[in-house]
TrEMBL record:
One GO molecular-function entry: exonuclease activity
Classification via SUPFAM superfamilies: Metallo-hydrolase/oxidoreductase
Name this protein carries in UniProt: Ribonuclease J
Stored SMART domains: Lactamase_B
Keywords, sorted A to Z: Exonuclease, Hydrolase, Nuclease, RNA-binding
EC number, as in UniProt: 3.1.-.-
Domain Metallo-beta-lactamase: 15-220
Enzyme's top EC category: hydrolase
Transferase among keywords: no
Amino acid sequence: MSTQVKFLNGLNTIGGNVVTFTNQQTRLIMDFGVNFAPTTTPATDLLNDGTLPNLPSLFQNMQSDLKSTIFVSHLHLDHMGALRYLTSPTDVYMSQNSADLYQVLINLGVEHAPYAKVKVIDYEKPINFGPFEVTFFETDHDIRGASVIRVSDGKHIFVHSGDVRLDGSHPERVEHWADVLHDNKIDLFLLEGTEFSFENQNDEFVRQTEQSLQIDFANIIKETEKLVVVNPYERNIDRLLALQNTAHENGRKFLWDHRFTVILRSMGIKNVQEIDWLKVMSEPSHYVVQNRFDQLHDLDQFDKQFVYLHMNGEPLGEYDPRFSELSTYLETRNVALQLMGASGHAKPDDLVALAQHVNAKQTVPWHSFKPEKEASELVSAGLNVYLPTKGEILNYN
């Protein structure tokens, strides 16, 4: 029997990329995210406007002849945010680190997916699903548990890169799976292209890394007597740990809000202290305080000047209406908005080099506002590239 590869979402957006692999009565789905969807919007509306992938049997409690299984490469919303809209029990496979964090977020009420039956898939231990064999490989991204997913139907090999970078803390993970895939001689490589969406991403002087972010953070702590306020992303556990360590090494205590405190303690981080504003107001130069956007006005009770570092927390960028609200608030406090993020995505040159090394028979760029730009670079590097359209099916006999 042939395998059908169907592209449902994410071909010209950053995130929300969903592809299915179907053979006989088995359908594998990966990933399962949404770019942006208010939780109050009905699933039917999101399905009709294309926000959710065109899989009505999963969102409208419809019968299907297919046995569907979902695979999540990592726990960012644009790769798993559609799980909350499931209407019937569905197996969802992810790495152990992803499953651990997901359970913490569910316990806190941050996530809610009653029909997602989460199961763990160990790295490099293949599991069979009907005619398919699925293998997860650990990769490097700005979240623990990030994975590359390989699918084999016995004749063909397909690979979903998930999100990846090569200048993070663990480039050896990427080098390992790239070597394995090169030897596998894969048929189809679905490769993210986030950084092709922007200009000048190959400028070494503007590219921030996790390591350089900590250096800059340490310098700011050393150079100011003011309270330092940071807004990081709660799912980037390793960065949060590094921020706390950097603060401690430079003579400041790091204080977290209740949600971050629960997450960090649940993930095994030691010496996590919750915010005590009385202590902060009495000795602001002794502390770094974490602040989420939805608790921005907690800062109202602090009547002195402070330093504000926006570290990939929400709102993520100017396209989010909340970003102007954040900017306006800081302006009224006469506080500069300092952006100190580090990308979880590979530079364009690194993506091209990675694709060259894997050397798939065909490479599909997606997860980008400009997949055609990535495609052009890949073709120039001598690779066979294909740009599918939404809903298109590729058949492998």
